[in-house]
């Protein structure tokens, strides 16, 4: 009956967003009077898996087969459904991401489980089961009742405050049946900027827009991001102009982010860009145009030239150390 | 093999599923005690991601031959957007006359039509921009028992093999897989297409078949909508004292 949490791994360690999902799952387990079990697939660092106990998991099912190390939503969904059946789970928790949605979708069809994606709060359980989710790309919310016996919640970043304790979870080997049909695709080149912080995982993001005036001017922004330990993003025009790579594009049709701190440099704040950042806890806007619409959505603002302001900020951050 | 290969390319059938959604700049409000979207003054469009999928489908048809069918699950108010898809280059359209209540229901409707017509390729946007779930392609794939991939940024077809690039966390990977496939698409798979006059004229006479839904289960139902709490005033810091920002972020917001 345990709540089952599917976690994503990065080089064998449980991703931070997945640890949040574990904490969320543990709270749901409390609400429904059961325990939280983690499902981890592929090559993993066992101590990192056990550490999910500090976020409230009691047990980890680990399918260590080497074939599962490479991200494969078809196989993952298959195995998730097997784990749900073994554990007789009624609630499945997955962190929102491209992979998370893909796994949730296929598992939903296998289990005839109602799926709610973009969950922003803990469910209300009192006879019925209702959760709040983000819709219209962060412009609104919807309270949704899930009526199926098995429920899958795909949870957004910052849905709950995570409290870390000192517990450890028991890691068990899990031997699911693998289907050949899930491994038909042949994977070619993988381009991954492994040294960069991932935008969806980052606590702080520094982002640049057309106000940066050209790709050759990015250094002050990169220096500031480095000083803060922040990931870097950009607006759609910037990625359309190839000033920055497409995977940095934040907005309605790009990546949606929800960091603790989002710092926009030379971005006017078109509604399509705001749609990608409105999950951020704090927003800082630096723009030389005092009329830039982004200031209306910001917590802190500086009207000024980014090339004048950014070096000052970088120095101020370095002075803190 | 050469002959079969050619035959298969010639009869390639593509299905493109489109959503009918409020424009990206629409102001969202609710009516009827917060149980319905207030449609007054809201401009509807083909979902921007679906538009990319449609554009690529039309290009593939031009390259390889075959047909493009557009599918929409929704009510008659979507017909202008469906006609636009026909004007962009789809050959025919199907509208399943039902309120797309949730992802599972919508996917079951699409899967039903797809199973009857045996498409080689089913394309749609990576997500709808109204509910942002990004799960319908995966659901349809599983319901049909075929692979699904998303978000796909590049797609080429050679015979019965698709080579695609998809975005993964912090990068991208290329993979090849056999048709049939279900793919969730995003830029830069193609450029949005604007219908030309000839397209608009021919779209008027292309078939738009309205079919009734098959009975399907509804596993989730929305109860109430709400808007985010209004944002407090933005605290302005003079550019000359920019370093004050860093202090405030540490002591007041406590985020660095």
Order of helices and strands of chain A: EEEHEHEHEHEEEEEEEEHEHEHEEH
CATH topology annotation of the largest domain in chain A: Rossmann fold
Percentage of residues in helical conformation of chain A: 25-40%
Instruction: Tell me the overall shape of chain A.
Output: globular
Q: How much of the residues of chain B is beta strand, in percent?
A: 25-35%
- Helix amount of chain B, in percent? 25-40%
Rg of chain B, rounded, reads 22 Å
Number of strands of chain B: 15
Please state the oligomeric state of the protein chains shown. heterodimer
Notes on the protein architecture:
The complex is a heterodimer of chains A (321) and B (256). Chain A contains eight helices and 18 strands. By secondary structure, chain A is an alpha/beta fold. Chain A folds into two domains: 3-183, Rossmann fold (3-Layer(aba) Sandwich), CATH 3.40.50.620; 204-320, Rossmann fold (3-Layer(aba) Sandwich). In chain A, a hairpin with a 1-residue loop joins strand 8 (124-126) and strand 9 (128-135). Chain A is globular, with a radius of gyration of 21 Å. Chain B has a single domain (2-228), classed as Rossmann fold, CATH 3.40.50. Chain B has helices spanning 2-10, 48-64, 79-88, 103-117, 136-144, 197-203, 243-251; strands spanning 13-17, 20-22, 30-31, 36-37, 44-46, 67-73, 92-96, 121-125, 148-158, 161-168, 171-178, 181-185, 208-211, 220-226, 235-236. In chain B, helix 3 packs across helix 6 and helix 4 packs across helix 5 (136-144).
């Amino acid at each position: 009956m345990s709540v089952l949490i599917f976690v994503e791994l990065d080089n064998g360690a449980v991703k931070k967003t997945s640890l949040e999902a574990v904490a969320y799952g543990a709270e749901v387990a409390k609400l429904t009077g059961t325990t939280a079990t983690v499902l981890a697939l592929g090559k993993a660092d066992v101590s990192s898996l056990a550490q999910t106990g500090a976020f409230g998991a009691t047990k980890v099912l680990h399918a260590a087969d080497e074939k599962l190390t490479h991200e494969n939503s078809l196989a993952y969904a298959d195995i998730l459904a097997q784990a749900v059946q073994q554990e007789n789970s009624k609630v499945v928790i997955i962190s929102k991401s491209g992979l998370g949605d893909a796994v949730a979708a296929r598992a939903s069809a296998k289990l005839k489980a109602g799926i709610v994606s973009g969950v922003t709060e803990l469910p209300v359980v009192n006879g019925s089961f209702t959760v709040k989710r983000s819709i219209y790309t962060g412009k609104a919310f919807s309270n949704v009742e899930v009526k199926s016996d098995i429920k899958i919640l795909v949870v957004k970043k910052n849905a709950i405050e995570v409290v870390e304790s000192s517990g450890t979870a028991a890691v068990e080997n899990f031997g699911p049946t693998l289907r050949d049909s899930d491994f038909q695709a042949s994977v070619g080149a993988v381009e991954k900027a492994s040294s960069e912080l991932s935008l969806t995982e980052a606590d702080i993001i520094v982002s640049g827009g057309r106000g940066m005036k050209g790709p050759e001017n990015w250094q002050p922004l990169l220096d500031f991001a480095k000083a803060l330990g922040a990931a870097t993003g950009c607006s759609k025009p910037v990625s359309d102009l190839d000033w920055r790579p497409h995977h940095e594009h934040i907005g309605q049709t790009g990546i949606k982010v929800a960091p603790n701190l989002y710092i926009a440099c030379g971005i006017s704040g078109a509604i399509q860009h705001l749609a990608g950042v409105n999950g951020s806890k704090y927003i800082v806007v630096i723009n030389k145009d005092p009329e830039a619409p982004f200031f209306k959505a910001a917590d802190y603002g500086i009207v000024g030239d980014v090339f004048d302001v950014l070096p000052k900020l970088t120095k101020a951050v370095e002075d803190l150390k | 093999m050469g002959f079969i290969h050619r035959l298969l390319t010639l009869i390639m059938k593509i299905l493109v599923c489109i959503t009918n959604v409020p424009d990206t700049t629409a102001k969202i409000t609710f009516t009827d005690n917060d149980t319905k979207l207030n449609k007054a003054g809201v401009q509807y469009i083909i979902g921007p991601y679906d538009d990319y999928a449609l554009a690529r489908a039309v290009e593939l048809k031009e390259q390889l031959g075959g047909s493009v069918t557009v599918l929409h699950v929704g009510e008659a108010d979507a017909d202008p957007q469906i006609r636009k898809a026909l004007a962009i280059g789809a050959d025919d359209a199907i509208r399943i006359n039902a309120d797309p209540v949730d992802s599972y229901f919508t996917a079951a409707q699409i899967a039903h039509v797809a199973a009857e017509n045996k498409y080689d390729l089913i394309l749609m946007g990576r997500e709808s921009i109204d509910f942002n779930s990004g799960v319908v392609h995966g659901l349809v794939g599983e319901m049909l028992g075929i692979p699904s991939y998303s978000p796909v940024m590049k797609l080429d077809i050679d015979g019965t093999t698709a080579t695609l690039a998809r975005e993964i966390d912090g990068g991208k990977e290329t993979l090849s897989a056999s048709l049939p496939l279900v793919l969730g698409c995003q830029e830069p798979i193609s450029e949005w297409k604007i219908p030309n006059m000839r397209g608009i004229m021919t779209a008027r006479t292309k078939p738009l078949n309205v079919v009734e839904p098959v009975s399907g289960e509804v596993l989730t139902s929305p109860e109430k909508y709400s808007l985010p709490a209004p944002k407090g005033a933005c605290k302005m810091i003079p550019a000359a004292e920019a370093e004050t920002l860093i202090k405030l972020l540490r002591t007041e917001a406590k985020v660095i």
